[in-house]
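Write out this protein's structure.
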Amino acid sequence: MEAEETRCAACRWWGGEWRDDEKGPLGTCRAHAPRTSQPKRRGRFDYARGEWPWTAATDWCGEFEGKGAATAP
């Protein structure tokens, strides 16, 4: 498999594409559950929210699966 074929942009877990002028296309990696942010204060209450990590289309990792990959039932 070519290196370009294993980048985030070709992965089944990558989505929600957004354009950044400096880094090119960005998206979220959904290979695992969202991660929670540091708690923030809003009024009298602290809150944290879950987010998938943002990655560049040219990034890669060990969780790559092609967009056409079949899943086990």
